[in-house]
Amino acid sequence: MIYNEEFETLPREVLEALQLKRLKQVIQRVYHTVGFYRRVFDEAGVTPDDIKTLDDLKRFPFTTKQDLRDNYPFGMFAVPMSSVVRLHASSGTTGRSTVVGYTKRDIDTWSELMARCFVAAGLTKNDIIHNAYGYGLFTGGLGAHYGAEKLGASVIPISGGNTKRQIMILQDFGPTAICCTPSYALNLAEQGKAMGIDMKALNLRVGVFGAEPWSEQMRQEIENLLNITALNIFGLSEMMGPGVAMECLEGRHGMHIFEDHFLVETINAETGEVLPPGEEGELVFTTITKEAFPLIRYRTRDLSRLFTEPCRCGRTLHRMDRVMGRSDDMLIIRGVNVFPSQIEAILLAIEGVEPHYQLIVERTGNLDTLEIQVEVGEQIFSNADEVKVLQNMERRIVKDIKDYLGVSAKVKLVEPKTIQRLEGKVIRVLDKRRI
Ligand code: AMP
Ligand code: ZN
């Protein structure tokens, strides 16, 4: 089934003509409305008139997360605030988050793209969707919610957390579909089982999972435990949120990218060189219909590759492989994006803490855990109130991490020079998760 038969199955040459028309418009618009783009285009010696073919996009500069930070919070918006109807935010590399804005039409587009995703998963207006993505500043909850409503399905806005209640609702309301992070799906399955509930006997038929990396093996585990079909959905706040790309039931190999709204490239993360389809590299997206917050050649830091072969489902949209990693050090912990630099900034704001720390990420019982080991200054250990001072410090770190980043961490304060150094350097992140 296809939600927007016309646009999802355009012959490639028609799609490319549409992309070119939209690309020309967006490049013109950002040049005239966003100071940042005018400046960087001028610096690169390119003007909107240089877009004659889709290939000409290569000549334009990349946009990075740092650029968004430099223009925090609204500096990249291409419309006045009076036209912005929604704001969301995602993690930035240091203290400040990345803010994204939407016009009414942007919300409509996003809703349609999410509706396309649900239909690609075989859902219709007769389905009941249990939406366990977090509602709030995170794009997952509201994105899926609006898409479900657009489709006409019944949506249960359960949001994240409170697993026991979620299991009760899964039993009582009988949803046919579930959306959440794949690790949370496993967690629900196992907690339900532990409560003596037959999770395979629920009404669930399909799951739309994303927001964090997962493997084919995890897919199989989820499918077995919940007796459902598990599909992958990809997106990022900067592009709009979830619904940039989605697997279809028929293909289940790579996610169709909604190329009538986003142009995609893969690049060599070191050199910036554009790679041919099939080669693994960093995904770079350009929005071609967004009004409030258009982005030109945005470097996602997500590593993947593109497939251009036709798909059994009839969609002509190219596909991207599952995300295989990152070209930066961002971690996704329980669906929350965390940069080591953010943790470092929080630690260093606390007196007595040394700039030597290590983040240990593990997955126990399908839930990600974060332990922060950090060295504290010598003088603390000679303090008469040593234990109390250390306890207070630990509590403060736990609280600040939770308050600023929204993740729970275990903190272990250690003596100077305890954390192992490699060629003098502490290994900042030990990610022991087997996904
Ligand atoms: P956010 O902007 O907070 O929604 O986070 C977006 C990031 O989440 C992306 O850049 C990816 O790193 C990650 N992500 C989203 N969907 C997936 C997925 N299906 N598989 C792997 N990573 C994903
Ligand atoms: Zn397909």
Explain the overall architecture.
This protein has two domains: about 80-330, ANL, N-terminal domain (Rossmann fold, 3-Layer(aba) Sandwich); about 335-430, GMP Synthetase, Chain A, domain 3. The chain has twelve helices and 23 strands. The strands form six sheets. Strands 4-3-5-6-7-8-9-14-13 form a nine-stranded mixed β-sheet, with helices on both faces. Strands 10-11-12-15 form a four-stranded antiparallel β-sheet. A four-stranded mixed β-sheet has the order 20-19-18-23. It is an alpha/beta fold. The chain has helices spanning about 5-10, 10-35, 35-45, 65-70, 105-120, 140-150, 165-170, 180-195, 215-225, 340-350, 380, 385-405; strands spanning about 85-90, 100-105, 130, 155, 175-180, 205-210, 230-235, 240-245, 255, 260-265, 280-285, 300-305, 305, 320, 325, 330-335, 335-340, 355-365, 365-375, 410-415, 420, 425, 430. Helices cover about 30% and strands about 25% of the residues.
CATH top level of the largest domain is Alpha Beta
Query: Which strand order do you get reading across the main beta sheet?
Result: 4-3-5-6-7-8-9-14-13
Architecture of the largest domain, CATH level 2?
3-Layer(aba) Sandwich
Distance between the termini: 31 Å
Strand content: 25-35%
Q: Helix segment count? A: 12
Main sheet characteristics: 9 strands, mixed
